[in-house]
User: Fold this.
Amino acid sequence: MRRPEKQAVHPVRALQQKLDDELKRQARERYFAWRIVPLLAIWAVLVAAFKAAAPIIIETGVVLTIYCAGAVVCVVGLARQARVHSGAR
Assistant:
């Protein structure tokens, strides 16, 4: 018994799909790249202000942990926004 053959995709449509996917990927990367540095800089200033407000009470290790955890949240959230912005799946 023969397997049913896959429906042939027109080469022009396949190429157009690849180009569309590449444009979406580039838009997502551009969105992310333009926003990540300012976002992390603002987060660093906020954490530094937090440390400056109470230098004796808050240990440096705690401040670094808070910064790193917040940076991860910022990156993940921004990646999600970039995906939505570019219309990626």
